[in-house]
Amino acid sequence: MKIRASSFRGSSSWLLSAMLAASAAGCGTEDQDLESDLASAESEIIGGSSVSIATRRSLGLVEVRGDCSGSLIHPDWVLTAAHCLAFYDLSQNWATAPRPDGTPEQRMAIAVEQVGTSDLAIMQLAPPAPGSAWPNVTRTMSSEPISTLVGQPITCYGRGFTAYDSPFGLTGSDIWRTLTRTVAELDYSDNSLVTHSTSAGYETAAPGDSGGPCLRDGQVVGVASWAEWDCEIPEFCEETITKIHKSHWRSVVEFKNYIDNAQARPPGGTANWTYPLLGVDWVHFPSTNAAWFTKIDNTIHFRGGLRTEGTNTALFSLFSSEAPPSEVYIPTNLCGGANGRLHVIPDSPIAAVQVALGSGVGWSAAQCFTSLDGVSFTRNALGTESLSLINGWTNSPYGTRPAAALLSGNIVRLQGAIANGSVAQPFTLDPELRPDATVFVPVDLCGAAKGRLMITSGGAVLIQTFGGFSDAQCFTSLEGVSFTKDSTGFEALSLQNGWTAHSPSSRIARVANLGGIIRFQGAINTSGTHPTAFYLPPSMRPATDVYVTVTLGNSEKGRLRITPSGDVNVETDGAWSSAQQFVSLEGAWFGL
């Protein structure tokens, strides 16, 4: 998404789904905040020719939220611009298509997913109502290399503003039009396509066209994203198209397959992710998802990766509605699998999410890469039960909350922090919270030291450390610890390259899609050196690389690197022998 300064005459820049409604109505206020501006107005083609109802149905052209454009890539899936959906709850997103007689038919969204870090999103629709006349359209993505599109014509569709003739600059809306333009250049900063007007400056995309498809030879090559124009000077009357292939994807084919196979995902198979406000100098890591978060059943989940060339430890901010009531510390992984943690500080009204380093880890590791995948915490104590501490363990060191557990469906989540125990066992879980086999889950200790919980089927919880036990006594965070009670809904994974199940005391390797969250369970080991332990089925593969923290032999920490091709690779910052000895998949997850 790009936002540039705008005016209503002369040289202008538009985020095509935004920035216009209040001013076009003549009643805007100068102090509207950014979120309100971006949510207010959307974009339409100036010039071009009209599109019939029959053509709209045959091409699968849909209105998104009433103020953006989009297109069907499958009867139940819409491709649009990510910025059209980013500022709304799932219940506020929908698509509308015309019936054969032109009357509108609406379907609500049940899942929304940004595709990588680009201004692209796919939206899954609820099943159609009885008597539906919804278009039965399936469209594939172009796999044409981006460099070959320069100088080629592409045809774009949208339902934004249609004229540039009012005192406020733009008039007309809700009329679908099409425009064929030649790709003039590439924006090499993000591999977008740029088109210029060829009709005295009076043909371009405008607010309302955002998310509208651009086609070549019947395949989608991109969606309308933003425009910049002085429509009296044709070379400045231009539109930027978010290309279907982004440079950071591993291959054009993988990106194409990811979109084309969207319909294979189960209903509700993606979470509704929200974009946080990044800290100074922090940017999205090129080969991972953008930094996003979502709230599911009172638990905040993060995804994506960040990097920086600066020294600011604050990664991003959360509003109070997403912040915990007290400070939380959650383990994560940095560049090369180095050990780190996230520290959430709930200062109202904005909570800061900071990165901290493990012992012996330099700041350059966080600058190079900080992973958010697999990081979560419970929002508050709603539905939790307090844990009865034993063996001298006490609650709430360093301003944290007391130890508690939450059963959410089949998932057990812990929260809080403890300290000062004399032996490794701080508490025992009640029967309804116990796993059906022993599980090992990474935890954060004093100074971001490496550690893990061993939780037995009998409910005993033991703290194990990579360093000395004093690391646990000083501080043990339970935040982010989660595991599944049993294997309900999970499917077995086929291990590859010499990897085997660890032992009878651990569960076999399994995976499940739980509401858009891909969760693992089990433990594995190998006598070999091949990092790829198994492959995920197509419906569970991420859009980009993801890096998830896991615990290895002797409480060493490692990570899983999961690719868009479905490869799941084991990586460790320490000796490979710790991965050969033991890799726990328990508690590992990532968001689609």
Automatic annotation (TrEMBL):
Alphabetized Gene3D superfamilies for the sequence: Trypsin-like serine proteases
One BP annotation, GO: proteolysis
Alphabetized GO MF terms: serine-type endopeptidase activity
Signal peptide span: 1-24
Domain (Peptidase S1) ranges: 45-264
Keywords: Disulfide bond, Signal
Source superkingdom: Bacteria
Record Pfam families: Trypsin
Keyword Disulfide bond: yes
InterPro entries registered for this protein in UniProt: Peptidase_S1 (IPR050430), Peptidase_S1_PA (IPR009003), Peptidase_S1_PA_chymotrypsin (IPR043504), Peptidase_S1A (IPR001314), Trypsin_dom (IPR001254), TRYPSIN_HIS (IPR018114)
Similarity remark: Belongs to the peptidase S1 family.
Protein name: Peptidase S1 domain-containing protein
UniProt organism field: Sorangium cellulosum
